[in-house]
């Protein structure tokens, strides 16, 4: 709530309360509220009356999980998201309906995950799309291998001039990752 105007004090239930005109941060409606003890709601309750019927859908859970990673310091993923400064655009963070409408008109289908195109960017319409789990896993900070690098690793290994440890050092990845590549466990040559 954004305080627009202080109205003064009123006697309510034999208690003196301070009152003001606030603007709801969700619907922007102006309402009169008490603001004693600094306790104010963030909305006038307008969002509680929305009946979208999506509370048990995978898309609603995806939205909720995204918010948890960004906003809840107790969430196990927080350190990799909210903890490193990733945010959610304001129109999505407080309004599931806006997120849902964007998702449905931008390729969401059950089984897909939300993906930030720029892994260091925020959750916002121009930086998000929907991809399979496999595609999403390739867009993490941990992934250092591209198909080009995998092919280079295989070519170096095939020369028999390098050890796995030397190749790993050259590409700044683990020796076990090199082993996976050269044994075609994770990558297949195209």
Structural write-up:
This protein has helices spanning 58-71, 90-93, 96-104, 133-138, 147-158, 164-171, 175-182; strands spanning 2-12, 15-23, 30-34, 113-116, 128-131. The termini are far apart. It is 32% helix and 17% strand. It contains 7 helices and 5 strands, in the order E-E-E-H-H-H-E-E-H-H-H-H. The strands form 2 sheets. It has a 3-stranded antiparallel β-sheet with strand order 1-2-3, with no helix packed on it. It has a two-stranded antiparallel ribbon with strand order 4-5. It folds into 3 domains: 2-49, no CATH class; 58-138, no CATH class; 147-182. By secondary structure, it is an alpha+beta fold. It is elongated. Strand 1 and strand 2 form a beta hairpin. Helix 6 (164-171) crosses helix 7 (175-182). The longest helix is centred in the middle third of the chain and has 14 residues, at 58-71.
Summary, kept brief:
The protein has 190 residues and is of the alpha+beta class. Helix content is 32%, strand content 17%. It has three domains: 2-49, no CATH class; 58-138, no CATH class; 147-182.
Features:
single chain, 190 residues, alpha+beta, 3 domains, three-stranded antiparallel sheet, 32% helix
């Amino acid at each position: 709530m954004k305080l627009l105007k202080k109205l003064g004090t009123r006697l309510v239930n034999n208690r003196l309360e301070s009152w003001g005109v606030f603007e709801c941060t969700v619907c922007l409606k102006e309402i009169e509220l008490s603001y004693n003890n600094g306790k104010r709601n963030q909305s006038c309750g307008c969002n509680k009356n929305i009946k979208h019927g999506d509370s048990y859908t995978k898309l609603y859970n995806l939205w909720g999980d995204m918010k948890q990673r960004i906003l809840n310091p107790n969430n196990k993923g927080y350190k990799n998201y909210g903890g490193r400064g990733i945010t959610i655009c304001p129109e999505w963070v407080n309004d599931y309906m806006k997120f849902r409408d964007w998702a449905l008109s931008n390729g969401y289908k059950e089984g897909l995950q939300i993906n930030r195109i720029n892994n260091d960017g925020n959750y916002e319409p121009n930086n998000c799309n929907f991809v399979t789990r496999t595609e999403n896993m390739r867009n993490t900070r941990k992934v250092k291998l591209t198909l080009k690098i995998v092919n280079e690793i295989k070519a170096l290994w095939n020369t028999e001039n390098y050890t796995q440890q030397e190749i790993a050092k050259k590409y700044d990845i683990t020796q076990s990752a090199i082993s996976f590549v050269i044994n075609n466990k994770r990558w297949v040559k195209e």
